[in-house]
Design goal:
With 180 residues, this protein is of the alpha/beta class. It has one domain (4-12, 21-174): Spore Coat Polysaccharide Biosynthesis Protein SpsA, Chain A (Alpha-Beta Complex), CATH 3.90.550. The chain contains six helices and nine strands, in the order βββαβαβαβαββααβ. The strands form two sheets. The chain has a seven-stranded mixed β-sheet with strand order 5-4-1-6-8-7-9, sandwiched between helices. A two-stranded antiparallel sheet has the order 2-3. Helix 3 (73-82) crosses helix 5.
Length: 180
């Protein structure tokens, strides 16, 4: 899917986890390694790590993107990566979904051109597991300048589609005890 890039958001403070989640291990593989491998299985070749450490991005074989809007949450990270992305779509994922699978990524990548954003949905929308048309960047920047910081509020103003996916694939790991 050469028209789609992938971005992993790794700029959070990981206060509940105690260390950078992207480097946490499951079966001797980091969350980042697991997510990157899945994105590659889905034929995504242009990969970015937004926030966190440039060394981690290099280790994972991804391009590092400095979060231009530190402490502005995922919406600032989305704008940061869209500014450097060269493809028409970008699939975003948080670094704490180490069980993401190819089926889920492929379902999101099947982008219906009638929409500007497609959001994974389990029992509720998973706003940070979504794919965005990069052509929406001017609208996103305008909303950010106006003071909006909630990614779900911005997504809701665009042509939006929800894509039903497996709850297991999007199991969020916020603390080490979530792995037990």
């Amino acid at each position: 899917m050469s028209s789609t890039s992938g971005a992993i958001f790794a700029g959070g403070k990981s206060s509940r986890f105690g260390s950078p989640k992207i480097s946490a291990l499951i079966d001797d593989r980091s969350f980042g390694e697991r997510i990157i491998a899945t994105l590659r299985e889905s034929q995504i070749r242009d990969l970015f790590i937004v926030g966190g450490s440039p060394d981690t991005a290099e280790l994972l074989g991804a391009d590092f993107v400095e979060d231009a809007f530190v402490d502005s949450g995922p919406f600032g990270a989305l704008i940061s990566v869209m500014r450097v992305c060269k493809t028409s779509n970008i699939l975003i994922l948080p670094c704490d979904v180490p069980f993401i699978d190819q089926e889920t990524c492929d379902a999101l990548i099947e982008f219906d051109d009638k929409y500007e954003v497609q959001v994974a949905s389990t029992d509720s929308p998973q706003w940070l597991c979504s794919i965005w048309k990069t052509a929406t960047l001017p609208t996103l920047e305008m909303r950010f300048t106006e003071g909006e910081r909630a990614i779900h509020k911005v997504a809701s103003t665009l042509k939006l589609r929800f894509v039903a996916v497996s709850t297991r694939a999007l199991r969020n790991v916020n603390a080490p005890t979530d792995l037990e």
